[in-house]
């Protein structure tokens, strides 16, 4: 793909994205997904987890999800950590996430509202 | 860390936590000189001389959650293992530049890894920051700037998942070309 062709594609994507944003305006209640991106998270695979989440959001055309990061929260042995915070619901923390689990978290929890209990942080 | 591009991600995260609004990432691969170098320059709050010296000590961190800070020490170790080193130059309230260099032919040199993913991840998580990524490979140069991109995107946020997907593909293809691929 040449640079010019890429830029043309980007402009198409921009227009496509713009339509989705317009739909989004009256929807204040967004789900937040937070990925741990401290040194511990990154070395445990957080980058691939993040990219899998973004890809899944793109594939499913989810417009009411925001992805952010946090640093090390002192639970390094459970990294990669992913929090899902749905509007008006308590935070759910998933531990030892990998790209495959991350995709399922998006599908089952973010989309279908079902917490995947067996991957949630144990009581510590 | 399994690859150098993960160190880059980690070190740039330091820059962002130091309040940087612009980060320049430069990778140089030079076979003639047998050097691979990584330079990360930010306009964050910077460090005084004493703090900059302590930054590669694993038992120094500004964080309070824990007593160790491993980002720079891990990079320093990776560089040392591959016949290189690191240098940190910092000015309070101006910014910090971290430079790491490696012997390109060294058997213990970690692979550079997936820079396209590292840059895409940074843009996705920090849409308000400007990233300038330059990659020099032998006599070829690739440059990517989020400033230009943001102008083209108009009001569409740069961290829109469709845009991030485009950035990832664009970087992958551009870096492939830089390596002589189609």
Automatic annotation (TrEMBL), chain A:
EC number(s) reported in the record: 1.12.1.3
Signal peptide annotation: none
SUPFAM superfamilies assigned: Thioredoxin-like (SSF52833)
Enzyme class: oxidoreductase
Record carries keyword Metal-binding: yes
Membrane-spanning intervals of the chain: none
GO molecular function: hydrogen dehydrogenase (NADP+) activity; iron-sulfur cluster binding; metal ion binding
InterPro entries: Thioredoxin-like_sf (IPR036249)
Domain of life according to the entry: Bacteria
Keyword NADP: no
Assigned keywords, A-Z: Iron, Iron-sulfur, Metal-binding, Oxidoreductase
Protein name per the record: NADP-reducing hydrogenase subunit HndB
Organism: Fervidicola ferrireducens
Gene, per the UniProt record: hndB
From TrEMBL, chain B:
Pfam families: HATPase_c (PF02518)
Database matches in InterPro entries: HATPase_C_sf (IPR036890), HATPase_dom (IPR003594), His_kinase_dom (IPR005467), Sig_transdc_His_kin-like_C (IPR004358)
Reaction equations catalysed: ATP + protein L-histidine = ADP + protein N-phospho-L-histidine
Keywords per UniProt: Kinase, Transferase, Two-component regulatory system
Histidine kinase domain span: 1-106
SUPFAM superfamilies associated with the record: ATPase domain of HSP90 chaperone/DNA topoisomerase II/histidine kinase
Protein name: histidine kinase
GO MF, one example: protein histidine kinase activity
Entry EC number(s): 2.7.13.3
Tagged with keyword Mitochondrion: no
PANTHER family: SENSOR HISTIDINE KINASE, SENSOR PROTEIN KINASE FLES
Family annotation (Gene3D superfamilies): Histidine kinase-like ATPase, C-terminal domain (3.30.565.10)
Enzyme class: transferase
Organism name: Fervidicola ferrireducens
GO BP: phosphorelay signal transduction system
UniProt KW Transferase keyword: yes
């Amino acid at each position: 793909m040449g640079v010019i062709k890429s830029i043309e594609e980007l402009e198409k994507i921009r227009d496509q994205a713009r339509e989705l944003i317009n739909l989004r305006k009256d929807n204040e209640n967004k789900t937040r997904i937070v990925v741990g991106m401290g040194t511990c998270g990154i070395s445990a695979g957080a980058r691939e987890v993040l990219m899998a989440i973004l890809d899944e959001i793109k594939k499913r055309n989810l417009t009411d999800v925001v992805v952010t990061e946090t640093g090390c929260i002192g639970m390094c042995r459970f990294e990669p950590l992913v929090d899902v915070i749905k509007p008006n619901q308590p935070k759910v923390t998933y531990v030892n996430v990998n790209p495959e689990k991350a995709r399922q978290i998006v599908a089952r929890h973010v989309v279908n509202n079902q917490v995947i209990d067996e991957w949630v942080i144990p009581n510590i | 860390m399994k690859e150098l591009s993960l160190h880059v991600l980690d070190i740039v995260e330091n820059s962002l936590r130091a309040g940087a609004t612009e980060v320049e990432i430069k990778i140089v691969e030079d076979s003639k000189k047998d050097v691979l170098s990584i330079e990360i320059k930010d306009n964050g709050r910077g460090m005084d001389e004493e703090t900059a010296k302590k930054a590669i000590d694993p038992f120094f961190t500004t964080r309070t959650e824990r007593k160790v800070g491993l980002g720079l020490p891990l990079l320093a170790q990776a560089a040392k293992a591959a016949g290189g080193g690191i240098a940190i130059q910092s000015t309070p309230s101006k910014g910090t530049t971290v430079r790491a260099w490696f012997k390109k032919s060294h058997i213990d040199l970690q692979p550079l890894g997936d820079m396209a993913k590292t840059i895409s991840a940074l843009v996705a998580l920090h849409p308000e920051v400007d990233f300038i990524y330059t990659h020099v490979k032998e006599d070829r140069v690739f440059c990517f700037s989020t400033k230009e991109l943001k102008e083209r995107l108009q009001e569409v946020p740069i961290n829109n998942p469709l845009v991030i997907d485009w950035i990832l593909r664009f970087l992958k293809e551009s870096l492939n070309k830089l390596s002589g691929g189609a």
